[in-house]
Design a protein that fits this description.
Length: 462
């Protein structure tokens, strides 16, 4: 590199871009180091579609209101209380000002999608999805003078005392190093490193699919942890959802997610149900199903629905298997036909009055007398044809990350690192101890990306 930079931003997704734009607007000269080639830039942000946002009244595409306390209650419910409430409140409260900021920086929104999402009040959907958001931010960053280097894999940050003195990366087969005044790490988790996942989860992880970018391998995270930078979160906690078993190993994205679970019977390879499919509205429960499937034999599950539920959810990119009888469907899915028939018959017999069935709200239409119960949307599977999907665990991002404070600043046991900040998935474990809330990853990345950019620029401009 012949140029001198005030700030190096490591990563090329939402959090990195928010940091880079904010820092550039504060007068800093910024370089983004993105491991991926240009066509795959953007990390997991390419596969997102919405942003969870607090608002005290109608805001942009959002209707009604979504208070800080309700938002926090939703988060505490899915995390089981395993969150830093101070940082959580910071993310939630700041999200309201983020939406107009996003619009000012090129993002366009659209009304919420229909189906099981139930998000018109809580989540703002991106026009064109995450890819459009990423492209809009790159255009804005370019106008602000931010430089971007693609296929630039950062391998080492030299920590000397309380500051980063050197950033080492490879590009076009050559090793390079720069010494910026400030560094922002926004390079995601380690989910694409199957060996690391296996060390955390055991052999079951070999069967996991990776929903997002294959470039998030945790190289910078591991390098910093090895140097004593403080960590947060557990290696075996992650955002993992149940996805279509036909999805590719990497980068299948959101189109492989299955949203039909609330209207289905879900069984394992022995044709046995193993969890309440109707526990809560899908945006608050979809992220537990990856872990549930991971605990089943061969890390696989099977979704069974009938004709009356086919149009109630957003379909996967792959069409479901279809059969006129349950026995025929069992044969197509390599399930024991007699056992599947027994499980479905028992479920059907446990269903009661379905007149209050409501697909987008908790309706209390429940089973009785079976374990596990189904506490909402429990309708008998009786109308052919029957449809089936295979479920696999799809990991979005891992929660072991860099511990940060309210200024997104990193530290060692001896104190703050003067010129190192982190944002996005690489520090999300500070707030997400377990579980997930739809659209909250984008909230964390946007809020802490802006904070990191602001603080990094302030330090560089001293």
């Amino acid at each position: 590199m012949t140029k001198s930079y005030d700030i190096a931003v490591i990563g090329g997704g939402n959090a990195a871009l928010c940091a880079a734009m904010t820092a550039a607007e504060a007068g800093a000269k910024v370089l983004i180091l993105e491991t991926a080639p240009k066509t795959y830039r953007g990390g997991n942000s390419r596969h997102t579609r919405n942003f969870r946002c607090m608002h005290t009244g109608p805001l942009g595409p959002l209707v009604e209101d979504y208070s800080e306390e309700e938002y926090l209650a939703d988060l505490l419910k899915v995390t089981g209380g395993k969150t830093d409430k101070d940082l959580a409140r910071l993310a939630i409260h700041t999200s309201e000002e983020c939406l107009p900021w996003m619009q000012e920086h090129g993002v366009r929104f659209q009304p919420s999608l229909s189906g099981t999402l139930s998000l018109a009040r809580t989540n703002a959907f991106f026009m064109g999805g995450g890819k459009s958001l990423v492209n809009a931010y790159y255009r804005t960053a370019e106008k602000l003078g931010v430089d971007v280097l693609y296929e630039a894999a950062v391998t080492h940050l030299e920590l000397e005392g309380d500051q980063i003195t050197r950033v080492v990366y490879t590009c076009e087969g050559q090793m390079h190093s720069i010494s910026p005044k400030s560094v922002v790490v926004a390079s995601g988790g380690f989910q694409a490193d199957t060996d690391w996942l296996t060390r955390a989860w055991g052999p079951a992880a070999q069967n996991f699919l990776i929903r997002g970018t294959p470039y998030n391998r945790g190289v910078v995270l591991a390098d910093l942890l090895d140097q004593g930078v403080q960590s947060v979160g557990d290696a075996d906690q992650c955002h993992a959802v149940a996805i279509d078993g036909r999805a590719p190993k990497y980068d299948g994205g959101i189109v492989t997610r299955l949203d039909c679970v609330p209207f289905s019977v879900v069984v394992n390879k022995n044709a046995e149900r193993f969890y309440d499919e109707g526990e809560d509205v899908w945006p608050k429960r979809y992220a537990i199903w990856g872990r549930l499937v991971a605990a089943q034999p061969d890390q696989v599950g099977y979704v069974i629905i009938d004709a009356k539920s086919l149009e109630l959810f957003m379909p996967s990119v792959f069409p479901p298997l279809k059969a006129d009888t349950l026995e025929e469907l069992a044969g197509m899915m390599d399930l024991p036909a007699d056992k599947l028939r027994q499980t479905v018959d028992r479920f059907n017999a446990a269903c009661g009055d379905t007149s209050k069935f409501h697909p987008t709200e908790l309706d209390g239409v429940a089973t009785s007398g079976i374990t596990p119960p189904k506490t909402n949307w429990a309708r008998p599977l009786t109308e052919p044809p029957f449809y089936g999907y295979t479920l696999r665990t799809g990991v979005t991002f891992t929660y072991l990350g860099l511990k940060v404070d309210r200024n997104a600043q990193c530290s060692t046991k001896t104190g703050l690192i003067r010129n190192l900040w982190a944002a996005g998935e690489t520090m999300a474990g500070s707030i997400l101890g377990q579980g997930y809330l739809a659209g909250f990853g984008m909230t964390i990345g946007t809020v802490f990306g802006r904070i990191a950019g602001r603080e990094a620029a302030a330090y560089a401009n001293k």
